[in-house]
Amino acid sequence: MSKRIEVHDLNVYYGKFKAVEGVSLTVEPRTVTAFIGPSGCGKSTFIRTLNRMHEVIPGAYVEGRVLLDGDNLYGPGVDPVRVRRTVGMVFQRPNPFPTMSIKENVLAGVRLNGQRLSATASADLVERSLRGANLWNEVKDRLNSPGSGLSGGQQQRLCIARAIAVQPEVILMDEPCSALDPISTIAIEDLIGELKEQYTVVIVTHNMQQAARVSDQTAFFNLAAQGKPGRLIEIGSTEKIFSNPDEKATEDYITGRFG
Ligand SMILES: Nc1ncnc2c1ncn2[C@@H]1O[C@H](COP(=O)(O)OP(=O)(O)OP(=O)(O)O)[C@@H](O)[C@H]1O
After folding, report:
1. Residue 219 lies in domain
2. ABC transporter domain: from which residue to which, for each copy (predicted)?
3. Which of 12, 20, 44, 203 to mutate to test the pocket of ligand 1 (most atoms within 8 A of CB)?
4. Total domains in the fold of the chain
């Protein structure tokens, strides 16, 4: 239930604007990879190409290849909806469906996929997913209450439960803690550590300490200049990137000298 991601020479465009250029990298199964870099360098754009989510923006397209255990996500006949089922995503702002109960929120992705489950199977899946997202104990007595009644941190864990309910192989997280308080942030960071036992995890974060705490591998992105495409400057073990990076730009960013 965890897959290897290989990206080969990826360019990403919004219409004529090349937002990201020439990215090649590998993410091993059951690891956490953090994407860091200054605002506008294309981290969100790039992470969205790993499950074809950028395609919801008219005019957005890629050149290059993204392989999941060797299968090209952009190959002919590949259905982007299927890709998003295999490669789940959690966004910056917790976005549970406000009118749905906690239980219905967890099941939303499964229902969207047209899967029919018996009452027992649904109850099992809800419990398993909420346990997987470290939320079960806090909500087990109010599964029929609205998801919007939870705290921000709980809502984000509910979104993670919704993502894992469809049994993805990869979980992408785009600044999942940026709207959360420090205690909820720690809860999500702990959860990321647990998720990597089963899934390949990729996270965009502006928080350097967070990248250092949660990731095995860190990728630093940067822009040559405003209006130029973002590029991957350096990728390596998080320990190396934070202690002894090869590139001066990486060191300057990590030590807070720019960005
Ligand atoms: N929907 C869009 N249409 C056109 N250009 C876009 C769109 N979204 C992002 N861009 C541009 O693509 C470039 C990369 O943006 P992106 O949001 O991926 O950067 P980022 O590194 O994630 O930034 P931040 O850290 O501020 O979230 C920027 O120049 C941005 O203006």
Report:
1. 5-93+169-255
2. 5-254
3. 44
4. 1
Residue 124 belongs to some domain of the structure: no
Q: What are phi and psi of 41, to 5 degrees?
A: -85, 0
- ipTM value of the model? 0.97
Over the stretch 28-56, which tens digit does the pLDDT of each residue have?
A: 999 999 999 999 999 999 999 999 999 99
d(CA 169, CA 85): 9
Give the distance (Å) from ligand 1 centre to CA of residue 230.
9
CATH of the domain at 58: 3.40.50.300
Token pair, residue 34, equals: 């953090």
Q: For 150, which DSSP code? A: S
In angstroms, the CA 176 to CA 156 distance is 7
Please return the burial class of 151, using the count of CB atoms within 10 Å of its CB with bins 0-12, 13-18 and 19+.
middle
What is the C-alpha to C-alpha distance for residues 207 and 184, in angstroms, rounded to an integer? Answer: 14
The tokens for 189 are 């960071």
**Structural domain contains residue 139:** no
* Residue in this structure with the two tokens 């974060």, named with its chain if needed: 205
What is the rounded CA–CA span in Å between residue 83 and residue 178? Answer: 26
0.90 surpassed by pTM: yes
Half-sphere exposure of 162 (CA within 13 A, CB side): 28
